[in-house]
């Protein structure tokens, strides 16, 4: 189901890009840029849309619906049926090693020999 939604989501996105690139804008006429009579409908109400605008609208709605579905499916934790945790009570518990004599081991401090390198200003 998830794979089908992803594939359809990508196909719809590509088709929307193609449809938007094919369509002409409202002000694409040459006369509208020079103040001819066609520019009156540039910001006004236009008639019913043609096939390309209707298809773009429907595909845009599908795009958003599928994106909401994919986000909901992706946010749910996936349930895996693994036999790894079925026998968790049968595992032997870990034991700790106790210190019987309560003595702290004494270690001598480490002293590193100092090396004199007079040719370099970089400390080692």
From TrEMBL:
It comes from the Bacteria. Keywords: Cell membrane, Membrane, Protein transport, Translocation, Transmembrane, Transmembrane helix, Transport. Residues 96-124 are annotated as: Disordered. GO terms for molecular function: protein-transporting ATPase activity. GO terms for biological process: intracellular protein transmembrane transport; protein secretion; protein transport by the Sec complex. It is found in: Cell membrane. Belongs to the SecG family. NCBIfam families: secG. This is Protein-export membrane protein SecG.
């Amino acid at each position: 189901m998830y794979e089908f939604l992803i594939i359809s989501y990508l196909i719809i996105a590509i088709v929307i890009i193609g449809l938007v690139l094919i369509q002409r804008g409202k002000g694409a006429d040459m006369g509208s840029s020079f103040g001819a009579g066609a520019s009156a409908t540039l910001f006004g109400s236009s008639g019913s849309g043609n096939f390309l605008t209707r298809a773009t609208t429907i595909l845009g709605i599908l795009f958003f619906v599928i994106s909401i579905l994919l986000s909901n499916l992706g946010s749910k934790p996936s349930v895996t049926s693994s036999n790894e945790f079925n026998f968790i009570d049968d595992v032997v518990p870990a034991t700790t090693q106790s210190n019987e004599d309560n003595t702290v081991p004494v270690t001598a401090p480490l002293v590193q020999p100092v090396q004199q390198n007079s040719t370099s200003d970089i400390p080692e």
